[in-house]
Amino acid sequence: MPATYKILTCIIALIGSSSLLLTEGMMSFFILSTPFVLTGYYRAVKGYPPAHRFVIGGLSTVTLIVFFIDIRLSQDVISAVGHLTMLFHAIKSFDIKDPWDPLQVFFMSLIQLLLASEVTRSMIFGAIFLVFMVGMVVAMFYSHIIKEGASGIRRFLRPIVTMTLLLIFMTTVFFLALPRFRGSLFGRPLSKGIKSGFSEKVSLGSLGEIKLDPTIVMRIRTSPMKGFRPYWRGMTFDIYSDNTWSSLQQGMRSYSSQNGVFLLADYDTKKGFRQEIILEPLETDLIFALRGAYRVEMESKTLSITDTGDIYIPKKSGKRIRYTVSSSNTPLMEKEPSPVYLQLPEDMAWLRGFTEGILPSAKDHKEIAKTIETYLRDNYTYSLSPSTPPDGVNPIRYFLLDGKKGFCEHYATAMVLMLRSMGIPARVVSGYMGGEYNRYGRYYIVRQKDAHTWVEAFIDGAWMRFDPTPAAEFTVNSPLFLYLDFLRMKWERYVVGYSRADQLRLLRFFERPVKVALWRTPSLKIESWFIYPLLFIILIAGIILYTLLLRVPQHIPEESRYYLKVRGLISKKHPVKESHTVREILSHFKTDDEVYPYLKEFILLYESLRFSGTADESMKNRYHYLYRILKEKL
Amino acid sequence: MFQWIEDLKRTLTGIIKGKDEVVKMAIVCLVSEGHLLIEDVPGVGKTTLALSLARATDCTFQRIQFTSDLLPSDIIGVNIYNPEKREFEFRRGPVFANIVLADEINRTNPKTQSALLEAMNEKKVSVERNTFPLPSPFMVIATQNPLEYHGTFPLPESQLDRFMIHLRIGYPEYDDEKLILKDMKGLDVIDSISPVVTKDEIIETQKRVNSVHVDDTLYDYLLRIVETTRKHEGIRLGVSTRGAQFLLRASKGHAIVEGRDYLIPDDIKAVAPLVIGHRIILKSRTYIRDAVELVRTIIDAIAVPL
Q1: A587 touches chain B (CB under 8 A)
Q2: Contact B217 A554 (CB under 8 A)
Q3: Which among A257, A501, A627, B239 is least surrounded, fewest beta carbons within 10 Å?
Q4: Domain ranges (residues) in chain B
């Protein structure tokens, strides 16, 4: 076995294991198998003999026992099988004997990639998959060449490149054309969800921790909102007591739909804001959107909406969710607010006096609200680590009178309580505010640190939004980050999230006349930011192909292929070099050998067919006949 | 294909025992219109080979023993005054023969050497204003003692280049040598050889060499060998284009001798060390036999066309 073949086997083994490690679902302890894999293949390449079969057998048994313990303890088949394959890679690396052993390694790597594909959605996995595919094409060629006895992979460069390109093309076609099903093979959820601050009860100050977290929560594709910052509404809180906000989820109604389209209210579609949202797995069953949602589109059969406009999905999926919401951005469901929105905790009698103290004489509800909003914004300091109130002191009282430092929750809670003390119905709403606009993909990137709490007050028959929190500074990411994030989103959308609907759209695309389709289909409009890397890749591939085609050696004539096969058979018993001519190979055989006369005639015919420039059918037939005889006898 | 080749082979190996390969190469050289340089210690049958070859081919034969005082005119001839006709007439030298044995060519001075080598190259002799063509077929078999022996003028590379094949005969195997001792007949046996081929047959065969079919991949194979000698780190001077031409021609001749009218890699492989060996200059060692060994290792590393 050539050393390059062993090195290739090693690379494929490492590709398999690294695809598993990429998923972060494996125990990091098993990374330790990698040095063993490298050692094993180093020994194999250097020509050390394989380990003793008792050692291999013993280690395999131990590994199986570890596997069963693993399954029993973790109850997770995928990670247990993943661990098993990684250990087997290490053992197998010390046991590479004949050309069939690498095939087992390839198969294990394939299993690893299958497992990984089930768990990961990373773009790096795409790259790993591509490398694996190219590696496998080369490896399959190699094993075939070894089987046939030829040596030197270089002359097969052209078929390998052609095969790889063909395979990539076929893979793409299969990917696009294979029927899609909902759900995954094992139905295993992704990694744990991101900790969110959204539950039915939220104690004051719990958002502070989250607001330091830069993890991306969602990406929202929509037209840029110039002039105002978007408030991605999540949950409405009604009752404040014991320094905790709780949501009553009043008037929860369920909607059901067969095609995934939920019409919540009649509204002119052209006037609304359409938001296409990809929500990372959050530990909540809330979904976020601009207020005034009247149409939701998502892969779900049911949906629940409260009176306050909070949208709930049936259960925590543990996966990324893609949904589309159209919002009017003005409240739609206006009822006379329930008395709940005037509720105040017991020890808040002082608040009305305090509030009246900052108000001018005007008694207009709207003016009152505006004044409070401005007052809080101007006179209090934004801080994510406000000083804690002394024991027994109400944190809002401390915030308003003494500390005067806090973040959105303090501001919003204070404002809501002040409004309620003045008899104005008010509530706290939490969700996300703003986000970074990615101009490459035309979408907002919303992170945990964009989590926000604001105020809604019922004034003049409508719920109006107020945000007493002063604007905090926000960071801007580099264009490279934004571009990579854009690519990730495309990957997420068109590779991981490729669905049946997309297939149908693609079919429809091909139904139309090409000219019309290219220019008139907005959903498939070619984006310039996507086309440049594509052109670049095509250019590079073209250059590589061109140079390869120029340097590729001549193709192998048909007669030579039979001779090569015979040479391969001979090479199992006798040393055969590429510089050996047919006659030199014949000289390995004694003249009284059984095959000698056949072999001699065979090579004379080969020489004549190959080099004389003349060939007749009877010679060819005899040549093929002799080949069949030799195949049996050698 | 050519019966006479087999006959000639048989005749010669009957005299020079155990040297089938050497005999074959001498015939290859004859067939491909080349000249042969035999380098070896005295007494291994250099002269016998040349003599028997001439006898067996019905060719005229001349032997020139090269000594340090030999003059060019001793080889090509001289103008002598004929008192009867009252004019100078050209008296042909020993070079005017089908097969010329230049014995111990490195014993004479370069001036005389080059006189012979010019004749070899151009197949004619020019004396004063007259040009005299040499007979056809024309083949020079030169012998030389290895360079470590005293009192020699080693042939310069440009002149070595004119020899198509450079051979070493070497001592015979034990059994062959025993056989030689047993039926020692002296040089009489050479006189008793009867020709197995006519000159015309040889000329016809030489023409056939030109039409040997060569597959395109074999040109590549040959050129790869030649190119490798030019790039090899142990070689100061690689094979010239003329060397490549000689290699191709000798390979074709080998194919004919083997009874084929098409070239196979074995032909190139068989003659290459003998054709290339004396055309390259090594960086370290100076003997041609080292170069031949190096050429063999080079060829052993080049894949034959499939």
Answers
A1: no
A2: yes
A3: A501
A4: 1-69+96-207, 211-306
- A141-150, A323-332, B22-31, B94-103: lowest mean pLDDT where? A141-150
Q: Decide if pLDDT at B247 tops 90.
A: yes
* Cβ under 8 Å to A: B residues 254-283: 260-266, 269
Inter-chain touch A581–B304, beta carbons under 8 Å: yes
Closest by CA position to A563, among listed A496, A615, A630: A630
B/e letters for A7-26, b = 16+ CB within 10 Å, e = fewer, are: ebbbbbbbbbbbbbbbbebb
Which chain A residues touch B269 with a CB distance below 8 Å?
Answer: 581
Is B299 near chain A, with CB under 8 Å?
Answer: yes
Which residues of chain A lie closer than 8 angstroms to B261, CB-CB? 612
Q: Average pLDDT for residues A297-316, to the nearest whole number?
A: 83
Rounded CA-CA distance A577/A569 in Å is 13
H/E segment holding residue A89? helix A77-93
Interface check for B223 against chain A (CB to CB < 8 A): the answer is: no
- d(CA B20, nearest CA chain A) in Å: 18
Kindly provide the b/e burial profile for residues B268-285, where b requires at least 16 CB atoms within 10 angstroms of the residue's own CB: bbbbbbbbbbbbbebeee
Nearest CA in chain B to A605: B264
**A residues 528..567 contacting B (CB < 8 A):** 554, 556-557, 560, 563-564
How many Å apart are CA A573 and CA A149, to the nearest integer?
A: 11
Query: Residue B262: its chain A contacts at CB < 8 A?
Result: 607-608, 611-613
**Helix H or strand E encompassing A597:** helix A596-611
Contacts of A557 in chain B (CB under 8 A): 306
Domain boundaries of chain A, sorted by first residue: 3-144, 201-480, 498-551, 558-633
The minimal CB distance from A563 to the residues B217, B261, B306 is found for: B306
Q: Which of B209, B227, B264, B39 is nearest to B141 (CA)?
A: B39
Beta-carbon contacts of residue B264 (< 8 Å; ≥ 6 apart): A581, A582, A607, A611, B218, B255
Asked if B304 and A579 come within 8 Å (Cβ–Cβ), the reply is yes
Query: DSSP secondary structure string, A283-311?
Result: SSSEE-B-SSEEEEEES-SEEEE-TT--E
List of residues 6+ apart from A399 with CB closer than 8 A: A380, A386, A389, A405, A406, A410, A414
pLDDT tens digits for A430-447? Answer: 888 888 888 777 888 888
Question: In this complex, is the C-beta atom of B35 within 8 Å of any C-beta atom belonging to chain A?
Answer: no
- Which of B213, B264, B306 lies nearest to residue A560, judging by beta carbons? B306
B1 in A contact zone (CB under 8 Å): no
The bridge status of strand B36-39 relative to strand B165-167 is parallel
Bridge partners of B167? B38
Domain topology for B1-69+96-207: Rossmann fold (3.40.50)
The two structure tokens encoding residue A360 = 């001018």
Quick check: A611 and B304 CB within 8 A?
Answer: no
Superfamily of chain region B211-306: Magnesium chelatase subunit I, C-Terminal domain (1.10.8.80)
3-state SS, residue B301: coil
Whole-angstrom Cα distance, residue A16 to residue A8?
12
- Find all residues with CB under 8 Å of A328, minimum gap 6, and list them: A267, A271, A272, A273, A292, A294
pLDDT value at B248 more than 90: yes
> Radius of gyration (Cα) for chain B, nearest Å?
20
pTM of the shown model: 0.48
Q: Is A188 on the interface with B (CB under 8 A)?
A: no
Query: Between residues A182 and A83, which one has the greater pLDDT?
Result: A83
Tokens of A281: 């797995």
Residue of A nearest to B212 (CA): A612
Chain A contact for B29 (CB, 8 A cutoff): no
